[in-house]
Amino acid sequence: MSALKEIQPLYTVLIVDDEPGQLDSLKELMTLSGYEVSTASCGFDAIKMLEQQSYDSVLLDLNMPNGSGYEVIDHVANSKIDVKIIVISGNTDFESTRNALKKGAYDFLKKPYVPDELLATVKNATSTKQLEIANENIQKKLEKSEHLHRFIVDNSPDIVFILDKDGNFTFLNETVYQTLGFEKNELIGQHYSKLVSSPNKELAKYVFGERRKGHRKSHKVELKLTCKDGSEHRYFDTTSMSIGLGGAGISGGVYGVARDVTEKKQAQEVINHHAYHDTLTKLPNRVLMEDRLSLAMTQALRNGQRLAVMFLDLDRFKWVNDTLGHAMGDRLLQSVSHRLESCIRKGDTLARFGGDEFALILPNVNQEEDAEIIAQKILEAFKEPLRIEEHELYVTLSIGIALYPDSGDTIEALIASADLAMYSVKGRGKNGYEFFHPSMNEASNARLNTERELRKALTTDDIKVCYQPQVNAITEKLVGFEALIRWEHPTDGLIYPGDFIPIAEETGLILELGRYVLDRACGDVQKWRQEGMKNVRVSINFSGVQVEHDTFIEDVLSALHKHDLPGSVLEVEITENVIMNDMSSAIRKLRELATHDIKVAIDDFGTGYSSLSYLQQFPINTLKIDKSFVSSINESEEATSIVDAIVAMAKGLKLNLIAEGVETDPQLEYLKNLGCESIQGYLFGKAEGVERTTEILNCIEQGDLVRNLTAV
Fold it and tell me: What topology is assigned to 299-437 in CATH?
């Protein structure tokens, strides 16, 4: 990773997470990046370590037993511990993010984290802390110098001056030449306004004029002074006091010292910029965006106006990161931000909300059409490719729009509404825009309800594994089963995978669901083998989330080992998209499966890339012809031609073939004549529960054909 070379060694970081795998992964990443790493598995341990040792940064999970992340943040704030907290949590709802940042967290990253983004965030946090420390040290030194060397004129690093009652310089030390480039004799007798920058002249007039009134009195003000050639300005903290008649032999005037604070001010500006801006795109970050949104809402309410909030998400950004690398992904985000800036109006606020999400505040929106014009302009602008080095990248965006006060009268409600509208666009095909509608809340609540009930179903045995037979096309004898999942809902009845698998993948529940199916299927095969049916083979579908997960190989092998099964009883079914998402990782994992005699099948072949190149690179045993083509055999010339081509391709590569969705004898005869050796579909039976499948297997052992048994 490119960011590794930029990290300076000896910075310390404390990693707090109750998941051992996550803890080890983060520790390895940060150690390789040059950090000195300590770890804690709960909030209480982290608090003890923070009391005993100083750290530059803390990488903190929120939801942990024995002390949550919020308790750690509160302890740091209450104890005034100087450390930057970066929250890394799978809990990414807006309330969690907002609470963590309000309590004092420096930044918030969602799991699974992007390593380069995490390293950049830690680097920025460390740099910010170092700047703060340096700034504090400078300030302490200046204060000490002020107390120890009060107005020691000849050796002072500050400009020491005396003005007469008319505001003319009567004395200046040598520092004025070193700092501003003037010789003393160029300023003696001149009015102080010769040094004061135009924006500060009225302030200086008020301050120095007041000094000539009343009793002896000291005042401090920051003034912007002009250098001799006029090309540069510097900032000075100017401390002055009035001198009464006869004081120090001066007949009424001002005595003072001007300390150069330019570098301190510049450092503070850098710190402030990092606190409120995204380091990659230089756009306002979500903290500044929410602050400006609050101000815009107040003005809109006062003036009886409306405003719009847009959420913009890049479609398929993960593909760019995975195929071209994170450095190119960063370049793409920068290019996207520049093009978006060219589309907005003066007074609009464009911010990077996080990851590949941008937010846009549009004040003075009187009707939906005003926001619609901006959305259309953005989509039109991205029809042209982004040229980055030798690459031409086409980018599309999904845009959700929420209007104030129609879609919400608080910051949280507006952001949530725009986010829901954006996800609605993604759900209907991406590359477009949509306004928030209250029905989206109902859909969101329905998804949350489905997720909650699905989690419960895994503990109540309402998730069932059924088995659909796969048969030899010529002999019509059984060659295996495909394990298919069904949800027997206590009130809604039978629910098919298409209605709950997408939600499981979106929430990460697919990992738990996949392990459940794998364990049940292996357990059923073990039972059949114990009853004497040794030749049963089962195919199981694995989603992209499962295959890409670090524990994929371990999960598969552990299930086989638990049930004392050889790898030959299992066939892993994946889609082409899983392979293309991360080809190098997929090759490594599938080759490892092959070493254990586990077969690999490509599901729904013909609907994706259908590329000869990857078929030759991967240890693939079987192609499954998608049922959409099978159902159109002899009805659609195009579908029939595709089936012919897939069969020819499989024969040429010496791969097995299974045709899905075979429902009629004419379809069967056509496939047999082509040479497709295996068949799956309602013609030979639907997916049955384990009890009925066991009955069918017992009859098959006695010589019965599958079609005769499943027709009963």
Answer: Alpha-Beta Plaits (3.30.70)
Write the CB contacts of 30 (distance below 8 Å, at least 6 apart in sequence).
13, 15, 37, 59, 122
Burial class of 358 by CB neighbour count within 10 A (0 to 12, 13 to 18, 19+): buried
DSSP state of 121: H
Rg (C-alpha) for the chain, rounded Å, is: 35
> Under CATH, what is the fold of the domain 447-710?
TIM Barrel (3.20.20)
How far apart are alpha carbons 283 and 270 in whole angstroms? Answer: 14
Residue 598 has pLDDT above 60, yes or no: yes
pLDDT of residue 424: 81
**Closest C-alpha to 88, from 114, 60, 116, 56:** 60
Pairwise CA distance, residues 261 & 239, whole Å: 13
More confident residue, 327 or 320: 327
CATH number for the domain whose boundaries are 149-266: 3.30.450.20
Q: What is the model's pTM? A: 0.48
Say which DSSP state 196 is in. Answer: B
- pLDDT, tens digit, for every residue of 439-461? 776 666 667 777 788 888 778 78
What local confidence, expressed as pLDDT, does residue 562 receive?
95
Give the whole-angstrom CA distance, residue 284 versus residue 273.
Answer: 9
- What are the sequence ranges of the domains in the chain? 2-145, 149-266, 299-437, 447-710
